[in-house]
Amino acid sequence: MACVLSSAVSLAAVGEQVFRGQIVHCACAESSGQATATAGDETAAQCTDACVKVGAGYVLSNPRNKSVYQLDDQKKPKSFAATNVVVIGTLDRSSGTIHVVDIVRDIPPRLKRARTVSIVCDACPRAMSKARPAAFEELTAWKRFAIVPDPGKADLVFLVSANPYLGDYITRQGPDNRPVLISIVYMNVIDPHTGVSLWGDSGRSGSWFVSNATKDLIDEFREQLELDESPTERRLFIARHTTLKAGPAIGK
Question: Are 102 and 76 contacting, i.e. CB atoms less than 8 angstroms apart?
């Protein structure tokens, strides 16, 4: 199926923009932007994998504005096949091709509906103990969520740790017994009922910069969460993934 680009308001814009959609193969996307299967009950993920294996390329398919964007970078999309993403880049209006600067996984809509959060600092000895008060301070200043002490009664859990999240918030018994090297701060926004990480990233810190790294991760989450709500947050999000990629960000 030929890749088709329908007209959209964003086509006239200049400079880096954000584009939402799903990374699929061209043959897996209808002209309406709706991801589809090519045969039988084949899913979009199966279709994408199969098509790319035979040398075909990735596109960004968006059924909301009924568009399919071609991507000039075919390496970055590989790890996001059949995933809802936000692409940061510039649009070549004549060809309908996005010059890709960065790609990040899009956040689930339910994050926008959340109203209460709880902060959990896991694997936080010594200097990492600064992470929880830093997260509390930043979330309080944000004023979007009510902070509750009981994680079981919160819509979301902000899990801060010196170790990567293993997806075991619900199943793990007792504290994290892995060795702790305070060089990276990890933050995951978790559904406390399923243990699934709905958003996550990490920032290099060292013992002196735990607070800065923690606050920066919350700011990063805020920028993506409020992309469609605040022009300021949208500009900060684009800056983080364009100009800031040229050098280390604060706390990164």
Answer: yes
Q: Same structural domain for residues 83 and 168?
A: no
Q: What is the dihedral of CA 108, 113, 118, 122, to 10 degrees?
A: 0
- C-alpha distances out from residue 188 to 86, 169, 198, Å: 18, 11, 7
In a domain, 42, yes or no: yes
Q: Tell me the residue range of the domain where 88 lies.
A: 9-105
In 11-113, the DSSP E strands lie at: 17-25, 58-62, 67-71, 84-92, 97-105
Does the structure show a pLDDT above 70 at 38? no
10 Å CB burial of residue 84 (0-12, 13-18, 19+) is middle
Residue 95, token pair as written in the block: 């060809």
- Token pair listed for 251: 């706390």
Task: List, for residues 62-100, the tens digit of each pLDDT value.
Answer: 888 788 899 998 899 988 988 999 999 999 988 889 999
Q: What's the whole-model pTM score?
A: 0.79
Residue tagged 């329908």 (tokens): 6
Residues 121, 75: Cα–Cα separation, whole Å = 35
> What H or E segment, with its residue span, contains residue 157?
strand 156-161
**Which of 105, 131, 165 delimits the end of a domain?**
105
Given the structure tokens 């990890």, which residue do they identify? 186
Boundary residue ending a domain (105, 129, 146): 105
**Residue of 177, 135, 179 lying closest to 157 (CA atoms):** 135
Indicate whether 4 belongs to any domain. Answer: no
